[in-house]
Specification:
This protein is α+β, with helices and mostly antiparallel strands. It has seven helices and twelve strands. An eight-stranded antiparallel sheet has the order 1-2-3-4-9-10-11-12. It has a two-stranded antiparallel sheet with strand order 5-6.
Length: 278
């Protein structure tokens, strides 16, 4: 397994790639070090291009971005690109799904799609990596994680690699927001539930706006879901909407959730313990 990193969207993106398991002499011969290195280089370039392209259009920290032009009133949303309008429409659907806990608008009314775009970048980067022939990999962008296939670690020589190939679920730790050196839990991300996102104020400060009228004492929310956009949106929504949103999402969607309250108490739905690594 190899690890590649790059910076985009104000965070570090880490990609772990496992080489295809060499089951035959023909496959082993085709996966020379040079060929594999080239494939990894192409895959990483494609992934980075996805992140940078979306960041260039959707970052409010870039004065020249399309969304910054909308924020300054220089461009009407109705006159913006199809990509922008589609992203906004998708965000409105998430607002509806969370009963308003998730919103694409800041309290001052400025359009802010950062709540979905990083997850979109992860999903599209994963598709780009798959297109380069990789089936087993993970992408971690600022703690939001998407896995594909299985974690594969080939430690044996070519002559016996098939006997010493370790395949399993992707083990992922959840950090304690009150002690960043400790883990609250380790979960196994599987092909059924391959995505995990964590939201809260412990790492980035207060950047999530509470839903008006919501009572919330949650420090951190971790959601494991079938796709990274669902996981990311729902983790944000739970922090913004509190207990009411937590109850709504866990009763209507197939997700696993672990929440940390202000007093350190942990709340988990019934699905979460099934993913805890033993």
């Amino acid at each position: 397994m190899t690890v590649h990193t790059f910076e985009s969207m104000g965070t570090v993106v880490s990609v772990r790639l496992s080489a295809p398991t060499p089951h035959s002499d023909a496959t082993r011969a085709s996966l020379s070090t040079e060929v594999l290195a080239l494939r990894e280089s192409v895959a990483m370039a494609a992934a980075e291009q996805v992140f940078d392209g979306l960041n260039e259009r959707f970052s409010l920290y870039r004065e020249s971005s399309e969304i910054s032009q909308i924020a300054r009133g220089e461009l009407l949303l109705s006159a913006s690109s199809e990509r922008m309008r589609d992203a906004y429409a998708e965000a409105l659907l998430w607002r509806e799904a969370t009963n308003g806990a998730f919103t694409p608008h800041r309290p001052d009314g400025v359009l802010d799609l950062s709540g979905t775009i990083k997850a979109v970048a992860i999903a599209e980067a994963a598709a780009a990596i798959q297109a380069c022939g990789f089936t087993d990999f993970s992408i971690n962008a600022g703690g939001d994680i998407l896995t594909h296939g299985f974690a594969t670690d080939v430690t044996a020589s070519d002559d016996s690699a098939s006997d010493d190939t370790h395949i399993g679920d992707w083990m992922t730790g959840i950090v304690d927001p009150q002690n960043r050196t400790e883990l609250l839990s380790v979960v196994a991300l599987t092909p059924e539930l391959p995505a995990m996102a964590t939201s809260g104020s412990a790492e980035r400060g207060d950047h999530i706006w509470a839903r008006p009228g919501a009572t919330n004492d949650f420090l951190q929310a971790t959601v494991v879901a079938q796709d990274i956009i669902t996981a990311d949106v729902f983790a944000t929504a739970i922090i913004a909407g509190g207990q009411e949103t937590l109850d709504h999402l866990t009763s209507h969607f197939e997700i696993a959730v672990l929440v940390v309250k202000a007093d350190g108490e942990l709340l988990a739905n019934a699905r979460f313990p099934e993913l805890v690594a033993h």
